[in-house]
Write the structure tokens for this entry.
Amino acid sequence: MIWTEGYSEIDQHRVYHQEWAVDDRPQARVLLVHGLGEHSGRYQHVGEFFTRAGINLTGFDLLGHGKSDGQRGHAESFDVFCREIDFFLNDLVSREPLIPVFLYGHSLGGLITLYYSLLRKPQNIKGVVCTSPGLKPGYPIPAWKTFFGNLLYKIAPRFTMDNGLPLEYISHDKNIVAAYKADPLNHPGISARMGMDLIRNGLIVSSKAHEMMLPLLLMVGSADQLVDPQAVIEFGTKSNHNTTLKVWDDGFHELHNETFKTEVLITITDWIKKTASG
């Protein structure tokens, strides 16, 4: 395996990225979009697993996350994230145009990848892997937060609140939960603009499930407390025949970090290789 890291300038911001690559020609290339408050470095074990399966994984830190520039937990719109995806997808495709490229998004990243796929309708990717997408929160959002979020959306969009994520439910593995809380690159912030965009775009994406034409591997844990698993299941059932829906019994939010993560990662890499060769 070859690991590299660096920074790229996108919209006048420095965006951190890293890649886990096989020593020879890969069967596929995957672009990873991480979740809210975290960063691409938390996917090192995923990158290592992918390379053992003959697949390259590229991850980047979203604006306002990890080692990238920007106010923590803030973006002016989802279009900012889409331009970041455009940049890295174009780079991956230009390197070796004949190697299929996939998008892989988790949580907020899952919502972003679905938004990107449905509204941008990209022609340069072979398929999408989406785990625990934030179509609808899995925990109650206080009415006062929604009220102030709507109020501040335009007049003070950068105003930041705690995102309220119930971190004890990210995984059944208590070591994962402890490591998340101790990681200085993780943060609990979310701006008024980004918080309301999350809710609004979750509704938009959910309403367009029937328009999903790209091959999609959609997965969620039945016991997810951070996002509503039923909203994910409904998206999968309303999507077309190219969607593979997998519900993991009693799974929490971070399926790739669950006690059964090896089975999850095998499911993902097997699907990618099958779709790449199809």
Observations:
- The two ends are 26 Å apart (CA to CA).
- The chain has a mean pLDDT of 96.
